[in-house]
Amino acid sequence: MRRIAIVGSGGSGKSTFAKKLSNQINIDLYHLDSLLWLPGWVPVTKEQQVAIQQRIVKEDTWIVDGNYNSTLDIRLNEADTIIFLDISRFVCLYRILKRYVLNRNRDREDMAGGCPEQLSWQFLKWIFHYPENKRPHLLKKLQVHSLNKEVIILKSRRDVERFLRHVS
C-alpha cells in the first residue's frame, strides 16, 4: 500500500480513518475537502480539481480521502489500493449530525479554512440515498479496478479497527 484512495459516503469516517492510516504507515495524506474548496465554501474550478489531483497522484506515495465522483477515476486509476468505507446510512447520518453539533461554526482540520461546519437537507438526503444512488456506481468501478489493484471494503467500525490493527 503506497497509493491509497479512500472513498465512502459522507459521515462514513473517511477523514478520520485516513488520518489514522497516514499516521500508522507514514504516508502523506490529502483531504480533498481541504484542497477543492476556497474560503466561504467556494469550490475551485473543475480544471483546478483535475490539476490538483493529477499533481498528487504523480507522487510515489499518497493517501487521498474524498469522493468527488467527477474526478474519481484520476485517483482510482493511479491507486494501488482502494478502500471503500461502506458504512450504514444510519451510522453516517448520526455521525454527520454529531459532527455538526460538536463543530458548528468552526473550521475542521480536514476542510479548507473559512469553511465552517454546516448542514443542509440536501446533504442529509444525499447521505440517506447514497446506498441507492451512488453505491452501485462505485461498486461497478471497484469491480473493474479490482483486476489490477487491491480493493478493500470495510462495512463497520469493527472492520475499520481490525484493519488498522493489522496494517503496518
Could you explain how this protein is built, in words?
- The radius of gyration is 15 Å and the shape is globular.
- Helix 5 (89-103) packs antiparallel against helix 6 (121-133).
- The longest helix is centred in the middle third of the chain and has 15 residues, at 89-103.
- The chain has one domain (3-166): P-loop containing nucleotide triphosphate hydrolases (Rossmann fold, 3-Layer(aba) Sandwich).
- Helices cover 50% and strands 16% of the residues.
- The model has no long low-confidence stretch (mean pLDDT 94).
- The chain starts with a strand and ends with a helix.
- It is built from 8 helices and 7 strands.
- With 168 residues, it is an alpha/beta fold.
Please describe the structure with a list of short key phrases separated by commas or semicolons.
single chain, Cytidylate_Kinase-2, five-stranded parallel beta sheet, 50% helix, 7 strands, 8 helices, alpha/beta, DNA topology modulation protein, P-loop_NTPase, Rossmann fold, 168 residues, two-stranded antiparallel sheet
